[in-house]
């Protein structure tokens, strides 16, 4: 009997048991009988970026990461000319939002460029949740059909995060487990590998225009959109100024405002999406997508404040932490001596 997607993913999990898969009811139940290639799972003992050694302090590591970002930033593409699928330019809502968000936006001419490009039909959201007080993290992906927004499947991967968080260098902490998750999805269910990723974090809206969505898009060669819940402060942008701009925009019937400063003509957009009236989100292209298209696609898939692909990925990872790891943030604080075990890897909370 052919293995189901869930069974195949479990069979491919790493030796320390760090991969978990689940599917929705609509998910096809079987894969071809031939064995899938092994997935590249993230080992808790093998970091994918250099860790600070005894000889290197945190500042030296920060300098290394800074140089990597500066070399990567010129590779970031923030237009639709290289997008490997056809945007929904037949949808008047998409075109209206994209052109309103960025007056310089115009729909690509696919008849001239490449009429054989596939339509955008599979999108996904990526999120990482942490167990409070530990280095344990659960990365999750929720895959949807587009434009129907039907949940096709989910995949989760949990691991021990070894790298420190440093502001504006989030990618170096979060891209490795996300890459492991994408490798696992590609190995177990390649026809669900997304054409476009919504990433919980910034893209071009970053001091070096190389946020986590840009970083992930460049290293994977996949279009990405960054969606942040909080403002990443850069010179010329303030919460007060953004709040005033949203109030002014509402008076003329729009909820999407460009983020513009003297140093950068366009960082991205701030938007009151879905049912949100006070808490905006911050949208910026990650890679191989334009500002206007990023804003329009995010708006279309946001029935609530957070875009549905990211929202579902977040809910899945949090539910997994509570139900499978038998722990939540409150327990982590109340029981400081407990250990969280992931296969053979144990993380002691201090």
From TrEMBL:
Residues 1-53 are annotated as: Disordered. It comes from the Eukaryota. It is found in: Cytoplasm. It comes from Bodo saltans (Flagellated protozoan). Residues 7-16 have a biased composition (Basic and acidic residues). Its main location: cytoplasm. Keywords: Cytoplasm, Endonuclease, Hydrolase, Nuclease. CDD domains: Endonuclease_V. GO terms for cellular component: cytoplasm; nucleolus. GO terms for molecular function: RNA endonuclease activity producing 5'-phosphomonoesters, hydrolytic mechanism; single-stranded RNA binding. This is Endonuclease V, putative. One of its GO terms (biological process) is DNA repair. It holds the Pfam family Endonuclease_5. PANTHER family: ENDONUCLEASE V. The keyword Electron transport does not apply. Residues 24-45 have a biased composition (Low complexity).
């Amino acid at each position: 009997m052919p293995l189901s997607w869930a069974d195949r993913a479990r069979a491919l999990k790493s030796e320390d048991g760090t991969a978990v898969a689940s599917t929705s009811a609509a998910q096809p139940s079987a894969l071809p009988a031939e064995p899938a290639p092994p997935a590249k799972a993230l080992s808790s003992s093998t970091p994918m970026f250099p860790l600070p050694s005894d000889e290197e302090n945190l500042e030296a590591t920060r300098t290394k990461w800074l140089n990597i970002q500066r070399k990567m930033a010129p590779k970031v593409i923030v237009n639709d000319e290289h997008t490997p699928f056809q945007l929904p330019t037949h949808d008047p809502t998409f075109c209206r939002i994209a052109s309103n968000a960025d007056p310089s936006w115009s729909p690509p001419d696919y008849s001239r460029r490449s009429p054989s490009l596939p339509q955008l039909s599979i999108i996904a959201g990526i999120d990482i949740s942490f167990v409070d007080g530990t280095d344990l993290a659960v990365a999750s992906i929720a895959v949807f059909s587009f434009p129907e927004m039907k949940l096709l499947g989910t995949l989760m991967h949990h691991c021990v995060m070894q790298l420190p968080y440093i502001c504006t260098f989030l990618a170096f902490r979060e891209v490795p487990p996300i890459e492991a998750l994408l490798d696992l999805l590609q190995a177990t269910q390649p026809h669900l590998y997304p054409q476009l990723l919504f990433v919980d974090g910034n893209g071009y809206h970053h001091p070096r225009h190389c946020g986590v969505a840009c970083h992930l898009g460049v290293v994977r060669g996949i279009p990405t959109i960054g969606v942040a819940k909080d403002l990443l402060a850069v010179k010329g942008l303030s919460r007060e100024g953004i709040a005033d701009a949203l109030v002014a925009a509402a008076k003329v019937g729009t909820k999407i405002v460009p983020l513009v400063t003297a140093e950068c003509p366009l960082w991205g957009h701030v938007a009151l999406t879905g049912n949100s009236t006070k808490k905006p989100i911050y949208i910026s292209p990650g890679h191989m997508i334009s500002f206007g298209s990023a804003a329009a696609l995010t708006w279309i898939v946001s029935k609530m404040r957070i875009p549905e692909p990211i929202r579902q990925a977040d809910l899945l990872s949090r539910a997994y932490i509570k139900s499978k790891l038998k722990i939540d943030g409150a327990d982590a604080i109340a029981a400081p001596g407990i250990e969280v075990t992931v296969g053979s890897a144990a993380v002691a909370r201090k």
